[in-house]
Amino acid sequence: MAVAQTPYVEERAGVLYVGATRVTVSSLIAAWRNEGYTAEELQLGFPATSLAQVYGTIAYYLDHQAELDRAFADEDARYQQQRSRDRDADPTFYQRLEERRTHLRQRLTPPDASDGV
Q1: Mapping DSSP to helix (H, G, I), strand (E, B) and coil, where does residue 11 land?
Q2: Would the pTM count as exceeding 0.85?
Q3: pLDDT, tens digit, 9 for 90 and up, residues 102-116
Q4: Domain extents in the chain
């Protein structure tokens, strides 16, 4: 992907990062766009970043939204394909993993949580 280098967004090995950190632009933008976190909350959640980097990354995303949305969708599609291949390759492992998750949720759910309140 052709990316204009900025102090806030850096491309390394085809992946966009927030500056010189290991935080990917896609993870920061997903938390901002999909989860509704503010820039200040993002900076707390990604302590390797500065507030200026968070705002700069959001600004960069807004300036390149169509291109980045396509790249993020492609990245997600590749992840889903790999996940499907992994599950198909070892269904017993994933069945046991889901059983353990269910058991853990049951242990962690308070008794009165099933009341729907």
Answers
A1: strand
A2: no
A3: 999 999 988 776 655
A4: 9-109
